[in-house]
Amino acid sequence: MAELAPVALEDLLERFQKGDVRALARALTLVEAGHPLGQALLKALRGRGRAKVVGVTGSPGAGKSTLTDRLILEARKRGERVGVLAVDPSSPFTGGAILGDRIRMMRHHQDPGVYIRSLASRGALGGLAGATVAALSLLEAFGFERIFVETVGVGQSEVDIARVADTTLLVLTPAAGDAVQAFKAGVMEIADLFAVNKFDLPGGERIIQELKSALELAPPRPGGWRPPIYPTVAATGEGVEALFEGLEAHHQHLLAHGLLEGHRLERARFEVESVIQEWGRRRTQDAKELVAQVAQGLLSPEEAALRLLKAEERPL
């Protein structure tokens, strides 16, 4: 990526602060690429704005993108400016990602009050990349009042989203095994609200009853919050208005019990951990000899990691 002169950086910052969408897109690209100027922009802009951040997760095919599309409509009815980060997993082999979630949100592409950005997880061990949190900070600084972060809902991403979002929405369907898989994966403990989407299919009531039974055994949530369950049919919009009101009720609960600041601190902790993880991934790719010594039993993983840390402190 070409270097930006300081004057160009100041110009980008000025245009960003004036609400230039192209400046936002450029800033997001710099941050996602890990460019030093992207980090400089983040330092200058971080902490501005206070968006309501909603994480949307669930198994592939649950209808998350269509449901998010409907939730965007509800937010726009209330006059909110909406940002969307759609995170797709990167291939561990090619590094590529499909980034196709925008297809189901095309109705908003001409709405200046909606901005949708697709991101790749970039090998973040099946979860969210630190760049996702950085992008979230930029959208907040740009003035979006509600931000949806949609994950593909596999691997670590379901747990990660709870550390990044203020409110976590888990989307299930009446498809066989969905509720059981949710119990086994532990995501019951991180969801603040549940949507049983495609409720017009057989088995919807059974899923709701299973969820209610499981929630009765779940540990109490901060402030005494009890996760509600909403039946929805995203394709037609049925139940979406009630679900949106539930999202708003959870945000008001966080405000009333002083829980938002803790969420912001956890988000920053996650971002720092992600930077360390990415640093380690890059360093081990370059340290083939050191990795070979671990495989041969000549070094323990801890000893190898310490050597990498010491090598970082002084040139090799």
UniProtKB/TrEMBL annotation:
PANTHER family cross-referenced by the UniProt entry: LAO_AO TRANSPORT SYSTEM ATPASE, LYSINE/ARGININE/ORNITHINE TRANSPORT SYSTEM KINASE
Domain of life: Bacteria
Protein name: LAO/AO transport system ATPase
Family: Belongs to the SIMIBI class G3E GTPase family. ArgK/MeaB subfamily.
InterPro entries: GTPase/Isobutyryl-CoA_mutase, GTPase_ArgK, P-loop_NTPase
Keywords: Chaperone, GTP-binding, Hydrolase, Nucleotide-binding
Keyword Chaperone: yes
Xref: NCBIfam families: lao
This protein's record includes keyword Zinc: no
GO MF annotation, one: GTP binding
SUPFAM superfamilies: P-loop containing nucleoside triphosphate hydrolases (SSF52540)
UniProt-listed Pfam families: MeaB
